[in-house]
Design a protein that fits this description.
4 strands, alpha+beta, 18% strand
């Protein structure tokens, strides 16, 4: 999750989902790593380009970007978008 200080939609995601994300099936499959978009990235994330809006959720597998969600579209849409991306990694939502 690329985020930045003062991001209203980042705060909304934190309020709606952030506290329990890691306890969900999706959160256990795709562990959340928070990245401050205002700070330099470490070497493992330098290849991720085009982060303009926050939050941006980037799913990475084997050091390759599988998909991303730009912005926070609300809880209902977020889960659907995330599951569609995770299916590309072998995730079973059932």
């Amino acid at each position: 999750m690329f985020e930045e200080h003062g991001c209203t939609y980042c705060e909304k995601w934190n309020d709606d989902i952030g506290e329990f994300y890691g306890n969900t099936k999706e959160g256990k499959w795709a562990k959340l790593e928070r990245v401050d978009n205002d700070l330099p990235r470490d070497d493992t994330l330098k290849h991720i380009k085009g982060i303009v809006f926050t939050p941006t959720f980037v799913v990475i597998s084997d050091n390759q970007e599988i998909g991303r969600i730009t912005g926070y579209p609300g809880e209902d849409y977020f889960w659907g978008y995330l599951v569609n991306i995770l299916k590309k990694t072998g995730f079973d939502s059932n």
